[in-house]
Amino acid sequence: MNTSKNINHIGLNPEKASKLAEGLNQLLANMQIYYQNLRGLHWNIKGEHFFQLHTKFEELYTDTQLKIDETAERILTLSARPVHTFEAYLSLNRLRIGKDISEAREAVDLVVENLSALLELERSLLEEAQALSDEGTTAMLSDYIREQEKVSWMLASWLQ
Question: Most CB within 10 Å of its CB: which of 19, 116, 128, 130?
Answer without folding.
Answer: 128
